[in-house]
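Need residues for this backbone.
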């Protein structure tokens, strides 16, 4: 379980006349994420989703507030304990190519968390990497390539295999389908749903795409200007979104086909 208690994150930015100002990218957010629940966090670009994800995963420290993994405050944890928790709570970053070492083969990229965070020997590691590659539909030849030799969709699958390599109990996917065409997007969404068969019961899927959130998650949070403005359990359709801002997001969706209204769900619904 991950808990956020009254968490804020301030950044420095430029105000009028180039003056340095601070602003809250995340404002006093409290959240509890259970490891066996599928969540989505929806919001416009700049609403603070990635900042929230980095705080949740203890990548960046909060300016104020507390984050707890299974009841223990992450920024007060012994490094050995935090290392163990990092294997249990993984993240797939927004920028797939930027999150992989360009000089490291796909095989080594997937194996790296195993080497850093577990005690598996090389033959166990190989068995695990090959099984994950098969699951993520990556060929043996692709495993030997460098990241720049793969497509965007293949890179996303490498990042998912990498996160799954340490058998986490929860994954945060940050914009896992952004920039992909509709067919590849659907493949990735289905792969995420199928991770349940590999023992992953819970995740947080971060997106600006309400259709993808409805497809993948039971609980949905809506974020605006650093705050969670709506929380829904068992969201199943656009009609479940009640907050004015959520309605606005739905109304600004493009029609899915000529003559359709923005209240009709897309291809995945
Ligand atoms: N390291 C940083 N330094 C200063 N400002 C930042 C930093 N990271 C993010 N911001 C700002 O904080 C706000 C929230 O950014 P964030 O990336 O969390 O939003 P987001 O909802 O994930 O957006 P997107 O969907 O476009 O990725 C934005 O105004 C952004 O410019």
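Answer:
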């Amino acid at each position: 379980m991950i808990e956020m208690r009254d968490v804020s994150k301030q950044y420095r930015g430029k105000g009028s006349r180039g003056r340095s100002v601070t602003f809250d990218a995340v404002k006093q957010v409290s959240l509890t994420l259970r490891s066996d629940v599928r969540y989505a966090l929806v919001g416009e670009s700049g609403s603070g989703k990635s900042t929230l994800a980095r705080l949740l995963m203890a990548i960046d420290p909060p300016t104020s507030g507390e984050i707890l993994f299974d009841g223990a405050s992450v920024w007060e944890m012994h490094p050995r304990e935090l290392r163990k928790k990092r294997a249990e709570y993984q993240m797939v970053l927004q920028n797939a190519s930027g999150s992989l070492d360009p000089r490291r083969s796909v095989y080594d990229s997937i194996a790296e968390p195993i080497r850093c965070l577990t005690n598996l020997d090389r033959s166990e590691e190989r068995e695990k990497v090959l099984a994950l590659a098969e699951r993520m539909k990556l060929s043996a030849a692709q495993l030997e390539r460098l990241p720049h030799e793969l497509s965007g969709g293949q890179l996303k699958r490498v990042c998912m295999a990498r996160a799954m390599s340490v058998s986490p109990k929860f994954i945060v996917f940050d914009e896992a389908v952004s920039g992909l065409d509709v067919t590849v997007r659907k493949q990735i969404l289905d792969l995420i749903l199928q991770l349940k068969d590999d023992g992953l019961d819970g995740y947080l899927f971060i997106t600006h795409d309400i259709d993808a959130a409805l497809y993948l998650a039971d609980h949905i949070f809506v974020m605006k200007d650093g705050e969670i403005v709506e929380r829904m359990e068992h969201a199943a359709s656009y009609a479940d979104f009640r907050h004015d801002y959520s309605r606005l997001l739905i109304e600004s969706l493009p029609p899915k086909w000529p003559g359709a209204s923005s209240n009709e769900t897309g291809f995945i619904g």
